[in-house]
Amino acid sequence: MQRYLVVADRAVGARELKDFVRTRNGDERATFHLVVPTTPDTRHLTWEESEANLVARRRLADGLEWMREIDPEVDGEVGDVDPLLAIEDALRETRYDSIVLAMRERPHRRRISVAGRVRQAFRLPVVDVLESSPVLYARTGSTDVMRRTA
To answer: Which residues contact 3 (CB under 8 A, 6 or more apart)?
Structure first.
């Protein structure tokens, strides 16, 4: 049984994520844990953590609602504002076979993408469902191995 750590922001309801979850649950018995990072409202210069947390909780509830139609055992949590720290926190609690990302990149970011940072930080296969053609990156030793998943 595969256990997937799904990390999604405002893309928690994206068609690509829904397709991925349906496919994985249909092909094999899979379980999912959804983490929604607390996301500040970037339309304003300042933001309150409580407001950002409330938005993340709503997104989590929306995501769990549709995911439970596919996998009744899915669970989830609101994570840190930094997706890498949110993943790190989830990995402390449970072992996962893969990390699935559904993160909309913020246009003002000039550094490496969230998916790129996750691939560098963790020794787990990573699937970014919002890439035009999802590719699975598995870190083995010092070389990256790529394999198409769809």
So the answer is: 30, 31, 32, 33, 94, 95, 96, 97
